[in-house]
Design brief:
Layout: H1 6-35, H2 41-50, H3 57-66, E1 106-115, E2 120-128, E3 134-140, H4 145-158, E4 166-169, H5 173-176, H6 178-186, E5 190-193, H7 203-217, H8 225-240, H9 254-265
Parallel strand pairs: 1-4, 4-5
Antiparallel strand pairs: 1-2, 2-3
């Protein structure tokens, strides 16, 4: 037996053990902060709690600040991508006050720019408003209507929404043009558009674009069109949909959130490769086909 009194043992434990635990936690926080360089302290805190650490967001903030690991975000210049000065029909906003209860009830669409060294290219996305999942996207060198049409057709190929689902967008000619509207009407989808000069009407799409710029585009130096399409496609399909944690989803990824909806509804999920493997670091897997609610 060691010649140490019980009181001496516990006094020593109170000094050493908490320091050992905090050192181990700081080491894990450093690795997570470097792996997720655009995550704020709340998402980092959610990650360590998922791994079993006892750490609230205030403690994580203190440790990240001590180690100078808080993420930095810059406000990006935003050129106009919406031209609502056209002769096409403008549809009323059907989403004001709407609360979704499942996926494939409301899709939101938007367009943004990505700057290359010598040109701008444009990205169109379609999101499921309930799960924040990117269900369709397309990248082109122009702002023509085919850009938005390609994203919509990709979304319709991934999912089969029920007649009456709402498709919401801004008033840009890409969404108001006859070719785009015909596709929506052919699938019996309701058309909804934001009010003039009111980005809050399409807040979920605007929020997604902010996340895309902060976590993928800013700080990148894309060499050419092929590289930006490959890089952003990988971010959307593998990182954002499958692994990025969303505070609005209870710090789950869109894939996890939709998987939970499928299980709770008693329906079979057709998510590809999602479930047991969600603890692995960013695998390169196909774009998920999601269960239908």
């Amino acid at each position: 037996m060691a010649a140490v009194s019980r009181g001496g043992y516990y006094r020593r434990w109170r000094v050493c053990k908490p320091r050992e635990e905090e050192t181990a936690l700081r080491d894990r926080l450093q690795k997570l902060a470097l792996a997720h360089r655009h995550y704020g302290y709340r998402r980092i805190a959610a990650l360590v709690r998922r791994e079993g650490w006892q750490a609230n967001h205030k403690r994580v903030l203190r440790l990240l600040r001590t180690d100078n690991l808080l993420c930095l975000r810059r406000k990006a210049f935003v050129p106009p991508t919406t031209d609502s000065n056209h002769g096409w029909r403008v549809w009323p906003n059907l989403t004001r006050g709407m609360q979704t209860t499942g996926i494939n009830q409301l899709w939101v669409a938007d367009i943004t720019y990505v700057r290359l060294n010598e040109e701008f290219v444009y990205l169109a996305v379609v999101l499921d408003a309930h799960s924040r999942c990117v269900v369709g996207w397309a990248i082109e060198r122009h702002l023509g209507s085919i850009l938005a049409i390609q994203a919509l057709e990709r979304a319709l190929a991934q999912r089969t929404p029920e007649p009456g689902m709402i498709h919401h967008s801004d008033r840009g000619f890409q969404y108001a043009c006859l070719d785009y509207v015909k596709i929506l009407q052919r699938h019996a989808l309701q058309i909804s558009m934001s009010r003039v000069g009111n980005p809050y009407d399409n807040a979920k799409a605007e929020s997604f674009m902010k996340t895309l710029k902060a976590e993928e585009v800013n700080g990148r130096d894309y060499r050419n069109f092929d590289q930006v399409r490959e890089s952003i496609g990988d971010f959307l399909e593998n990182v954002y949909n499958r692994w990025r944690l969303h505070s609005a989803l209870g710090y789950q990824s869109p894939a996890e959130f939709e998987e939970g909806i499928c299980h709770s509804s008693g329906k079979d999920s057709i998510l590809l490769g999602v479930g047991e493997g969600l603890t692995a670091p960013f695998p390169h897997t196909p774009f998920p086909k999601n269960c239908l609610i």
